[in-house]
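Chapter summary example: a protein plus S-adenosylmethionine.
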Amino acid sequence: MKYMGGKTALLGGRLGEILLSEADSASRFVDLFGGSGAVAHFAAQHLKLPILSVDLQEYARVFASAVIERTCSLVGDPALTGWLATPVATLAGHEPIPVTADLVHAARVAAAAEPEGFITRHYGGHYFSLSQAQTLDSLYAALPASGALRTVALAALLQAASACAAAPGHTAQPFQPTATLLPYIRQAWTRDVSESARIAVEQIAPAFAAVRGEARVGDAQSVVETLQEGDLVFCDPPYSAVQYSRFYHVLEGIARGGWDEVGGKGRAPARTRRETSEFSMKSKAPAAMKKLVAGLRQCGCRAIITFPNADASNGLSANDIIAMTEDDWIVRAHYVDSVHSTLGGRSGSGPRGGRKKLKEAVLVLSPRSSVVSMPVKFPPGSIEADGDRVAAGVL
Ligand SMILES: C[S@@+](CC[C@H](N)C(=O)[O-])C[C@H]1O[C@@H](n2cnc3c(N)ncnc32)[C@H](O)[C@@H]1O
């Protein structure tokens, strides 16, 4: 799946090799910034270790859970086959090809008046054609009731929605029906949602974990406090100064079963309903990263941090992270070729965005064994006596 900062393409190369060799002596693999679930899926299938995957977003929990919380294949499962065969009700008479601006506006009006189906009501005529939106709603309504089957089907539905959306690789805003963008809407609206869901099931169902793991919605900073010495902790934090919850609110809406209300050109929920990350705020990202590495050092685990080897828009660079870690950790830096999607950004070519080549730093961190953290008590009345300080001592 196309995901901003997603590591799928790198896992078949050097990054995958590093993860597997570093995990050799670990008792658990933790992915603190799960995203599309690519890293957790890879680790779950290759390592005989439990995987813990964490992300602020519910859709990311669904993606990770679909593989890491399951220890057997679901290929040919009758419940999934039956789900894919869900009959789809469509509104006849809409979206004849070619799509025109008038037809797009008419589809929006018709979709908003639909009493059933939040996907049609919220996104029909915007991200999806009416029939695509209704297919997504029919598949949503027919999801298996619970358990792994529901999670796998929901993950497939999210992948299908992502593949078919008339938007530049994310869902911050749909294409608007201007003369330039109408061909892209037409292209997206002719994609087959049921076929995309079938392809996604074919990809997810055979993948399963060697050892059952856990996927959670949560803040990496809070989870760090619960980590242990045997954990190998993979950190692929945001590098953009734009919140992921802004880019992926449609996937989040579908994963949560709909927002109360959406609005604006992006059909997004109110800002206050969207998760925010300090890692995506230029003013807070450096402090957030320092806090993260300090927390990791405190729990004694080993860690791998990936970050573009360039100045990122959130104000951080791989060199900044090296500078933050090298006193307390032995840092081994690897640099691998990578391509980042500009996701419709200005440097992109065409409305679906371009690809930008860069090097990704893969920083392997082992705690320096001579450094311990201990609370230091200062005598009453001393200048330091306003609280405990944490000092680095040498054994
Ligand atoms: C660069 S992406 C990770 C991509 C992932 N490795 C993949 O291959 O798809 C960063 C992810 O971090 C999540 N995120 C941002 N801040 C977070 C936080 N404080 N705690 C947990 N997850 C966070 C975002 O929602 C996003 O999915």
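Key point: Residues 3, 5-7, 33, 35-36, 38-39, 54-57, 60, 219-221, 236-238, 244, 277, 279 surround S-adenosylmethionine (CB under 6 Å).
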